[in-house]
Every structure is written in structure tokens, then in C-alpha cells.
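Render 3'(2'),5'-bisphosphate nucleotidase 1 in 3D.
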Amino acid sequence: MLSNVFRANIFWLSHNPLKVGNSYKIRYGTTEASVTVQSIDNLIDTQDLGQQENANEVGRNAVAEVTLRSHDLLPIDAHEDNAKLGRVVLYEGYDVAGGGLINMDGYPDQRQSKEPKSKNIYKVSHSVTPDMRAERFGHYGGIFWFTGLSGSGKSTLAVAVEKEIFNKNMNAYVLDGDNVRYGLNSDLGFSPEDRAENIRRIGEVAALQANSGTIADLETCETRDPKGLYKKARGGDIKQFTGIDSPYEAPVNPDLVVDTQHNDIDACVQQIVTYIQANVGLKQHQEKELGGDNCVRRIAVEAGNLTLDYFDESGYQGADAKADGSPVTVADQKAEDLITEALKKITHDVLIIGEEAAAADVEDNKARPDLREVEYFWLVDPLDGTKEFISGSGDYTVNIALIKNHVPVLGVVYAPVHGELYAAHGEGTAIRWMEETDKERPIAVREVPDKGLTIVSSKSHGKGERLDKFLENYKIQKQIQRGSSLKICVIAAGKADMYPRFGMTCEWDTAAAHAVLNAAGGTITDIDGNELKYGLGTNEKFLNPEFIARSASVILPEGQE
């Protein structure tokens, strides 16, 4: 049979005691493998033949029944079935440490199940992908298996966790062992074979739930004994009871250990909920998953396409002025509303800072948490380059950035008129996607050409004595002008080398393109060479300092870095 766990009656020879958790090399027949001691189920004293259950170690010349576990499935024969192959030797290095007989009672064959009886069973492929479900539900599916002895608090914890994450707008369902045995597994008993089948069925149901975007919770023990089972097992009324006469097989490498003996239920629940959010919440996936059908890209494109409904190459009529005198259009507000609602669906608990809301909702701004103490928040500019939009120029963009600890870790910049999109996540690859070809390619900053720098500047703020004086420090090949965040993106794409900005800008103007430039190998710093940070200011206008966006090979003048 095949199994990765088995018992053995061992006679121990080594001067070093055999202990739970120790690893050894074993040899039986022609097979060699590595195993770990999972438990010492019964220790026999060779002097007086006294027995001790659940011992911690086995000394020299002692006999013990131990449970051994391997990483992989092993072909194993019990001694009673095959006297030759059912003998095992344990080694410490090259020295024999002990030996004994293999006992497979209670351990079913774990080989892969046979093919379905019918040859007409085919797996159906779904047209709804996990990413699509995640965008709808706000999180990915997952299975969290609560394991422990009877009475350890598995069901109590699972039900409490289910309620807590449900209150956070996450789909969750507890597959409690007792409940499943009432229905799906009512035909199963508690023999080793039936227990294995019980777990297999629960696992299949949990996998289906996880694939559907649901979070499945599978749910100082004997002193609690809520069902009176330990008492019955001690009295011999229940056979093969886990923890008494059937070993509890603790996970070798658990993902999370919850101490229900010393911590109250609220602390345990919070520990588990934090772990679940860290593993299925979209914040982490947003940083990792900027591939083909990524949610944030789709949101940016959808918002950009909305602005095209209001775009006119002959010029936009009807713009209003904000409190700071800058222009705003219906397209700005409509696009921000779309982005905000979409981001709320995929990251329920992440703060969203949108340009138009920040400019208009003064009372909300006062109630906003101190961003210096917020780990994650979104920065959104629904229409960067409103002047370009109003004039009928296509050099405006939709900017969406995710900020983590004041650094942009994800950025999407979309220029809808040009059908051009830039995106990046963390320190991964920055990309440029063109709608015309529906192809994307990686981008990176370039080395400064021998002919000199290409300087990119704003169409409306591209001149000035201070800028001219600053550029005297460099050999300049040419200057180009672009609007909006495209000034930074062309540096990331290796089309220009530096963008000095000595005029006023806001954090949502630069954050998304900053993430792209970082991933492409460039940087944005203030004039003293300090990396631009986000959400550290105390003012409500989210103003950037004067900054220099540049490729890595561009050095600031001496005294400015």
C-alpha cells in the first residue's frame, strides 16, 4: 500500500534519545527515505515492562510504538503481511539507531483513487474565471482547515470567524464535521477507511466552494469535553477515538497555530481573520496580479472610455472652476465616481483619495484618518490633464495608484485618446499596452545617450528662468512636451531622460506614473534627492514638493543630491 504515515514497534539502540519531531533516515527492503517522528504512542520499559502513553522520548534499550511521517507517499507493507519487507531500520547519519516492525493498523491506502466507473464523465471548464469572481465578490476563494483534538474549540472558532468575515462583506461558510455527517456523509462510520473517505468528501466540497469565490472554514481539550466523548473513550465505549486510542496527526507545517488554551476567543478570532485577509484579500493580489485581465487595468480603461463620451477635438465647452482655480468637467466627476465604486468592490476596507472628492468634500476630509498611520490607500486622478482635455488634445490620462506605507506599489496610467496604457506593480516589470495592436511589451529607462539628454516638459509649464538655469548643468539634445502623467511615462519607456517640475502638482498627478517609473528603473525625487512619498503631508491639498523625474543614469547637480 502507499502511505506517508505509519506506525512502527521500535527497539531503540542509540545513546541519543528518540524524540518527537526528530528526523531520521529509514531503510526497509530496498527503499530509503527520510521520516519525522510524529508521536510516541506507547513506551515500554524493558526493566519492568511498564507502559507509558504519549511519551516525549525513547531512551537507549527501550521499546516503543511510534508514528512516523514522510514527506512523500511510500510503498509500505505491514510486518504481518510481509515479514521480510515489514521490517524497518532507523539511522542517525551512517549509524544504526534502532529498528523494528511496521504496523499499518488504522492507516488506509493513500494511493490515487481509481478512474470513475463511467467513461462518459468529463470535467466541465468554467467561463467565469477566479479573477472575475474576485472582482465581483471583493476577494478570492480559499479553504482554511481548522484541525485539533475534539473540544479544542474548532467549531466555536470557525463559527465566530465566519460571522466576523461575513460582517466584512466576505462570502464565508463553515463546513462543520458534525453537520456534514448529518447529510452528505451520513453513510460513513468512524473506521479508518470511513474517516479517510469523510475527509476526502469534505475536501472536495470545500474545493468547489473555494473555486466559486467562497471562503470555506473547516472546522486544552479533554477538560472541556463538550460532548462527553473523552469520558466515553476512556471508559472503552468509543473505539478509535482521536487523541485516546487513535493518534491525532498534527500538521507537520501548519500555516497558523492558534492557542485556545491561553487566549480568549476574541483574540483567536482576530488572529485568524487577519491571516485570512492577508491571504485572500485583494490588496495583496492587486500588487501581484497586473496580468491580462487585471481589475485595475479594466477599471482605468472603462473610466477612460467614459471620458471619451465628453471629449471633443474642437474643444470642450462648459468647464467649471474649482476652489483653487483649476478647471473641472463633468467627465472628471463621472470618471471618478466610476473608479471609486469599482475600487470599493475589490478592496472594501481600503481608503480611496480621489481628486474631485478631496477638492469638494471639506467635511469628509476633516474626518479622514491620518494618512501617516494608514498602511494602504488608493490615489485616483480620474482625468489628469484637464486643460488638455478641454483644449481637445489627447494628452490626458486616467491615473490609479495603490499606496503602501507612503510608496506607490501599483500604478495604472491610461491615455484613452491614444489607446495607450502603462502599468506596473511593485518592483516587477513595467509595461506599455497599445489598444491598436492589443499587445503589451515591457519597458525600461535608458542610459543617457552620448548626444545628451532628452528633456520632457509640460505644455503649459515648460518654460521659466529657474528651469533654464537648472538645465545648464546638463548636455541637452532636445526638449519635448507632453501633457499629464505621460511626461513621466515617456521616461519609463526610454523615450526621454528627465522631467524637472518646479511648479505646483498634487500627489494624484504623479503617484500612478511614479509606480511605473520605479518599476522601469527610474525614480522621482525632490530637488534634494529624497524619494517622493505620499500621504505624509498635513495639508488637505495633497501638494507635491518640487521634483525631478529621471532615469537612473541621470545624476542631480552637485549639492542637490
